[in-house]
Design a protein that fits this description.
about 260 residues; mainly alpha; two-stranded parallel sheet; 4 strands; about 5% strand; disordered C terminus
């Protein structure tokens, strides 16, 4: 992952101050589908006491933290001038960050997930998905294109977050800090996949073809590198740093043999 840092730095310094965002409907659709699926999948994995709930929760935290920060940056443009995929209101972003952050803290930091907490957060995530769908559904009709002044600020923050994720993953993997390696690598996968998606759907003309080139030579390969880090960290964590589910999962012959 450390070898990808120069690429992220290049993306940071090459952003334009003013940009024309196109295909906003695709951006909105991607936001609604991804946000809802992350909530639903996390609920299923939590109730099933699956270790992979950690990964999806980190991705959810990344989504809501990123869209919330972008909402604060882009709010001077006018929250009603752009759809929720570009300007996420605080009343929607804060619960998302809080719920997914709580899950990440319980599973990755404390390594304990009491059953009542899993149930309560699952209910909260289902409500969050409903709030997201309602917010998009009730938003006024907007044009499929929008001129974004100082749009580079949001992209710069995203690229800076990508650099931080790569450094965390690289340093943690090298030092053997399994939890930080898992967080940094998963954080990186979510950031680079999201970056690639929004670059493609919000660009047009020459910028669209540039976005495709960046996707092919930069963002997707970097996401794959981070995914390798996720796999390595997950294998180590499952073996040496398991999660304690409270109450404990009933013993089965398969579990006892393991």
């Amino acid at each position: 992952p450390a070898l990808q840092v120069p690429w992220a730095i290049y993306l940071t310094i090459s952003q334009l101050d003013i940009g024309l965002a196109t295909d906003m409907r695709f951006a909105v659709g991607g936001m609604v589908i991804t946000g809802s699926l992350l909530s639903l999948v996390t609920v299923v994995l939590l109730l099933a006491r699956s270790y992979f709930a950690v990964h999806v929760a980190i991705a959810g935290l990344t989504l809501w933290l990123g869209t919330g920060l972008n909402g604060l940056i882009a709010s001077p443009i006018g929250p009603r001038g752009l759809p929720p995929a570009f300007v996420t209101p605080l009343w929607l972003a804060v619960p998302g960050v809080a719920l997914f952050g709580l899950i990440v803290w319980a599973l990755l930091v404390r390594r304990r997930m009491p059953r009542p907490l899993a149930i309560l957060t699952s209910i909260g995530l289902l409500v969050l998905a409903g709030m997201l769908i309602y917010d998009v559904w009730s938003s006024p009709h907007v044009h499929n294109k929008a001129l974004v002044n100082k749009g580079s600020v949001g992209w710069d923050v995203l690229d800076l977050a990508e650099i931080i994720a790569l450094l965390i993953a690289a340093l943690a993997l090298r030092a053997g800090y399994v939890r930080w390696a898992l967080f940094g690598s998963t954080f990186g996968v979510a950031l680079f996949v999201g970056d690639a998606w929004f670059n493609v759907v919000l660009s047009h003309g020459e910028s669209f073809y540039e976005a495709l080139v960046f996707l092919a030579v930069g963002e997707i390969p970097t996401a794959v590198v981070c995914l390798v880090g996720v796999v390595a960290a997950t294998r180590a964590a499952v073996q040496f740093d398991p999660i304690t589910w409270v109450p404990a999962t009933p013993a089965t012959p398969a579990n006892e043999a393991a």
